[in-house]
Amino acid sequence: MLAAKLAEEAAGIGLAPAFLGRALNVDASGGEKKRIETLQLAILAPRFAVLDELDSGLDVDALRAVARRVERATADGASGAAGLGVLAITHYRRLLDELHPDAVHVLVKGRIVASGGPELADDLERTGYAGYTEAEVAAPAIGPDPFGGLFS
């Protein structure tokens, strides 16, 4: 049963069946490792995932396949529970175009200096980081903690 689910999920994200018989990430390229990360989401069904530069090493088609798997995980939820919570870290808007985030935060030197909806990524794409300078980093933190004390 698990082997069938693993094979189905791997096929859905374009991961070759040969990877299913290997030790985790052995002889895998950067892009293949990112696919394996999303395969783990499907199999392990965590409640929360931190996806650091999920778009790194992926071509456009692979990014779409991986993003669709993450989107399904955020909507699925096991046994009727809420779906997967995701913190996706990226330097490029391309991932956000595929993931459709609820919120976007800009971090500079480890601090959130701006928060908003997907339009914040649009602004950042147009202006670059010039608006998020040292002066902004020195300013007090914006509004209430967007993570509800999760990291406090």
Written account of the structure:
Helix content is 42%, strand content 14%. With 152 residues, it is of the alpha+beta class. The chain has two domains: 2-100, P-loop containing nucleotide triphosphate hydrolases (Rossmann fold, 3-Layer(aba) Sandwich); 102-152, no CATH class. Strands 1-2 form a two-stranded parallel ribbon. A two-stranded antiparallel sheet has the order 3-4. Helix 3 (60-76) links the parallel strand 1 (48-52) and strand 2. It is globular. The N and C termini lie far apart (40 Å).
Major sheet description: 2 strands, parallel
- The value of Rg in angstroms is 17 Å
Q: Identify low-pLDDT runs.
A: none
CATH homologous superfamily grouping of the largest domain = P-loop containing nucleotide triphosphate hydrolases
> What is the global morphology?
globular
In CATH terms, what is the fold-level topology of the largest domain?
Rossmann fold
Biggest sheet, spatial arrangement of strands: 1-2
Instruction: Spell the H/E element sequence.
Output: HHEHEHEEHH
CATH architecture of the largest domain: 3-Layer(aba) Sandwich
Helical fraction equals: 40-55%
| CATH first level of the largest domain | Alpha Beta
Number of domains: 2
